[in-house]
Amino acid sequence: MTLSRKCVPFTPFERELSKSTIAIVTAGGVHLKDQVPFNIGDELGDLGYREIPPDVDSSDLMVSHHHYDHRDADEDINVVFPIDVLRDLQAEGFIGEIAKKHIGYGYSQQLKAMYEGTAREIANDIDKTSRADVVVLTGGCPSVCHRTIAVVQREIEMKGIPTVLITVSPEVSAQMRPPRALYPKGFKIGNSVGRPGMRDLQKKVLRDALNLLTQDTRPGDFVTIEYPEYGEQYEPPRVKKIGQ
Amino acid sequence: MPAYEADLDRFREYDAQVLGISVDSVPCNTAWAKSLGGISYDLLSDFHPKGEVARSFDAYREKDGISERALFVVDKEGKFAYVDIHDIGDQPDNEELFDVLRKL
Fold it and tell me: Which of A61, A138, A173, A185 is the most exposed place for a label (fewest CB within 10 A)?
């Protein structure tokens, strides 16, 4: 039996954030500089993923992705992979621990293999080795990655780990029915958590995303929050709407 | 097209056969499928007379010489159960199709 995407997996969050361990999974093509880069030479993309250790220096991270403008992430990786932001929230006592493993993967248009292979492998890896109580996810490119990340999110949620997606392509992500999602209104692709260097804003976005876990959200809910301090607003990518 | 490939098992569960059709020639379709990493459902070539099938489905763009981006669900009696002609940039939700198939 295959699960309809209208059926949304949902694991209630029954802990306290201040005592919880958080992992990050991103489809933004993030990896360590000394890891094999994602294959951007092949239009089919790369089905692999890279494990990122908890004590990583963010300056040792880079992006290999050819389907979104990642110049902001090159400047400040936290805009798609908020590891330093997570550390700040830990120092403030907002969260408990940083998970023992985080995951980066990139673009692949081999959707069947991604959904039935990579997504499940990532979920297994997170489940078995990260010790995460919660997973925060971010997308990469506007179309494919913002779909695949929601599939990864659903797989992790089905392992019994609550998750929250920060999406800047909400209509695309919505087609895959993620369990919980925050849309920071008007943020452009490649700025999932804010602009480079805007640490206060990045913290606010991550806090808001994590707070969705403690709110009584319905499975599949998207919460839109405006952040005027972000500045210039961008229209999100559109998809064909149901009934249109 | 990879999105239909990814959901092929679900289409099969509804006893539905997925077919792609374009006005391109068979070698073009073959090359295109290869560029997508392979497609396991059939791609049909509406090449000669060019666009005849698309015209009969009212989905041929005379000005551009190509067919529309369109989805059709044809029931077992050969009748249209669903027609959707959409913009090239649209990404229709397969769940819409499953809703139709569920009711056939």
Answer: A185
Per-residue pLDDT of A12-37, as tens digits, reads 999 999 999 999 999 999 999 999 99
Contact A112 B8 (CB under 8 A): yes
Go through A41-80 and write b for each residue having 16 or more CB atoms within 10 A of its CB, e for each that does not: eeebbbbbbbbbebebeeeebbbbbbbbebebbeebbbbb
Query: Of A132-146, B33-47, B80-94, where does mean pLDDT reach its minimum?
Result: B80-94
> Using the beta-carbon criterion (under 8 Å), do B93 and A43 form an inter-chain contact?
no
Burial of residue B95, with CB atoms counted within 10 A of its CB: 0-12 exposed, 13-18 middle, 19 or more buried: middle
Domain boundaries of chain A, sorted by first residue: 17-230
The pLDDT value recorded for residue A1 is 67
Residue type, A97: E
Chain A hits for B89, CB-CB cut-off 8 Å, are: 238
d(CA A17, CA A95): 5
The predicted complex's ipTM stands at 0.79
Architecture per CATH, A17-230: 3-Layer(aba) Sandwich (3.40)
Asked if A143's CB is within 8 angstroms of B2's CB, the reply is no
